[in-house]
Prior knowledge:
Distance between the termini: 54 Å
Radius of gyration: 29 Å
Number of strands: 2
Oligomer: single chain
Amino acid sequence: MVNSALIGQPPLSDSDYWIVKGNQLLSGKSNLDPSKGLKIPPLRPPPDQYRFETRGPVITAVSAVIFVIMVSVTMARFMLRKLMKELKFGLDDWLMVPALILASLWPILQICAVKYSGTGKHVYDVTYHELYMSKWIGNFAKVTFFVALAFVKLSITAFNMRLTGLSSRKWMYAHWSFFGILVVFILCTIFLATFQCDPPMGAWNVMATGHLEKAPTCIPDNDISFPLSVIHILLDFCLLAVPILVLWKVQLAWSTKIRLYILFAAGALTCFAAVMRRVSQARLKSDPTYNVSTLIYWTEVDIMLTVIVASLPVLGTALWSRAMNSRKSKSSNPSSGFSNFKSKSRGDAPSSHSREGIMRQDEVELEYHDPGPLDLEASSGRSENISREAYHVERQTMPWASAQRL
């Protein structure tokens, strides 16, 4: 364990001294004597009123649960893509690989913050070395959060391309424009986090900052996090609007539309979590290492819901397909020959779905049972009739559904 004094006490080592001086430079208090220690409210209470408190174990437990949920949901998505032939692996799935890695890294960083940077404890129970580590972990977590969510949004955008890609060129232009905005968002986030201060070490290495002759010029944290949070919320609403607009215009039975609206409306929860995260961040003014727990919880909920929403179309389609297949297997009553040929019009309940379970409206079902020796001419006549009926039903599907396979 590193020998370091508690915040508010005089430094115990040279490292403590430079950490104190670096924080004083960053806060504009370079005229203070570092040897007297760093004062961050609230100050340590008298011994008769002191009681050690920590939210660290709860933060660790919540972070572990969030990690397991995100990994489990995304791995289930990948397994369904592999096991179900009608679900084709696409760009949206490939983008979920870096998204999952970065999203899973965030709760891991919070567990590390509890162990190494004093997160969950009152500020007067945190050492100078833990304060030094909090700068590294906090800045890295901030970049990880926004970049991870941007990759999840890229995955959702790629899914929207598969959903509307062949219906209109305007949709493709909109999707690629949105794709470009997200790439720019990622690059800007990395750039702002890396060069927040001049010199750049001022935002990351507070010990090295203490050796500088003058205070570094830095952009305030709130001036970076607030715009990024607002953009993040606006992008969530834009992504939520796309499938809703598409489903409103296409010809689907209302039972299917309601099911899909419920599926995509879950994305509204991510918008709510993002707003609550921003509110918690604005309220974080005193005792930051202790009160940051609320911000951590809302941030992890935001990440978790975004990852889940990105996989819901695949998971929902698989469950719906299994339910429909089970229902058909129970209700089927086969007879000889080509006896069970059924066609449903647009007004009936949906029966056949695309690879994402939302495209096809009509059902074409062919079942063959060997009736024994057949008259060739009669068999040929029946085959021609079936071909004409199948062609007629195929023509009744949505104009872009038969071409677009998700």
